[in-house]
Give the backbone structure.
Amino acid sequence: MIRPADSTPNGRPDSGRPTPAGPRFAPGRILATPGALEALARAGRDPAARVTALLARHLAGDWGDVDAHDWQANERALATGARLLSAYVLPTGVRVWALTEAVDDEGKRQATTLLLPEEY
């Protein structure tokens, strides 16, 4: 299933092409820092569902609240195997990153970590 690409207020590119609704890459091992887990717990009644939703967005290539440069870097990284970074703002106003590190130039991913920017 595909959904239309959205135009965004953050200057993210809108190619006019459909974007896949499913995962665009394998996440590797999924991790979260204590700070991210605490922020997610404070953001709502079901932190596990929020984690799942953020990971689904990241894996689908919805990079969240990043600037146009980072959005384009992520799109290139899908082909080159480089690091992927998404940023999401929780209902509490706290910003959470999803960071996927690559193992090799073939795009194999080592791990995806949810963390707060100050924990990087």
Notes: The chain has a mean pLDDT of 85.
